[in-house]
Amino acid sequence: MRIAILSNGPGNYSTKRLVEEANKRGHEVEIIKYKNCYISIEQGSNQVFYKGEPLGKYDAIIPRIASYMTKYGTAIVRQLEMQGEYCLSRSLAITRARDKLRSTQLLAKYNIDIPKTVVSRDSGDIDQLLDQLGGAPVIIKLASGTHGNGVVLAETKKAAKSTLQAFYLTNEQGTNILLQEFIKESAGTDIRAFVVGAKVVASMKRQSLDDDFRSNLHKGGSGTPIKLTPEEEKVAIKAAKVMGLSIAGVDIMRSERGPLVLEVNASPGFGIEKVTGRNVAGKIIEYVERNATRTIRKDRIGA
Ligand SMILES: Nc1ncnc2c1ncn2[C@@H]1O[C@H](COP(=O)(O)OP(=O)(O)O)[C@@H](O)[C@H]1O
Ligand SMILES: [Mg+2]
Hints:
Elements: E1 2-6, H1 13-24, E2 28-32, E3 37-42, E4 45-50, E5 53-54, E6 60-63, H2 70-82, H3 91-97, H4 100-109, E7 117-119, H5 126-132, E8 138-142, E9 151-154, H6 157-169, E10 177-181, E11 189-196, E12 199-207, E13 222-225, H7 230-243, E14 247-255, E15 258-265, H8 271-276, H9 280-291
Parallel strand pairs: 1-2, 1-6
Antiparallel strand pairs: 3-4, 4-5, 7-10, 8-9, 8-10, 11-12, 11-14, 12-13, 14-15
Helix pairs in contact: 1-9, 2-3
C-alpha cells in the first residue's frame, strides 16, 4: 500500500514507529508536513498541494495532528477526505475530540460515566454551580487545554470563584470553561487505554511524580503497565466509538462509583509502547490494512 502520515515531526517517536512498522509490512510510506501544505479552492475544484505538487491518491492517510495546530491540520484532513482519500481519523472526529465540552456532552449522552460537569459563562452562579457538584474542591478546565495545562484544582469556593472570574476575563474569545467534580479518591493517577478499532491494544496507569493532581506524562508523570477490568475495557472501546475515532487514547479515572472517562485523545502518543512493551504502531498498520477503502464512511454521530 501507499501510506501517507500527516505529521509535522518526522523525528517523533510515534511517527518513526509508524514508518518502521509500515515498512516492515512492505508498505511505501511518505511523511507529509501538513503545516507546509496549502489548499487551493475554487468552484468545483479543491486540491491540497505539498512541495508544489497536488497531494493525494494514497491507499491510506494517517493523520497525526498536533493539538496546537488542530484548525489548520483538520482543514487539510477535511480537504483530503473531500478528494476521496481514506483518512484513518476523520477531520470531524479530531475536531470533536479537541473540545472537552463537546466531548463530555457526547459521552454523557451515550451513557458513559464522566466526572459530573457544569458549564457557565457567569461566575455569579458560583454557589449554584458548586452545589450541583457537591461543593469544593472542584476542577476547573479550559475546553481546549492539553497536556494538563489549563486544568486547575480549586480547593475552596473562594478559589473557584476567583479562578473562574480570571478565566472568563482573559478568555473573551470564547473558550468554554468546565467545572468538574474532583475525583479525589484517585487524584494524581489515571489510566490511559489505547484503542485501535474495537480493541484495547495497550493500557497503562499514570502517576504524577510529585503531589500534583495531574498525572499527564508531559507534567512529569510516570507510567506502569496495568490490566484493565472488563468494565474499563468496555468503557474505553465505547468512548472511542462514541467519538467516532478508530484510534484513540482514552483517559479513565477509577472512582468509587466505577470508571469515569476524562477525555478521548485523537492523536495519542506512543510512549505507551515503551511502558507496556506492546507493538501499538504495528496494530495500527494492521488496522489500516484491513480497513483502508476509498469509500468514505459517513459520520452519524450528529454532534
Ligand atoms: N475531575 C477530575 N478529578 C481529578 N483529577 C482530574 C480531573 N480531571 C482531570 N484530572 C487530572 O488532570 C489531568 C489532566 O486532565 P485532562 O482532562 O485529561 O486534560 P488534558 O487534556 O490537559 O490532559 C488528568 O490526567 C487527571 O490526572
Ligand atoms: Mg488528558
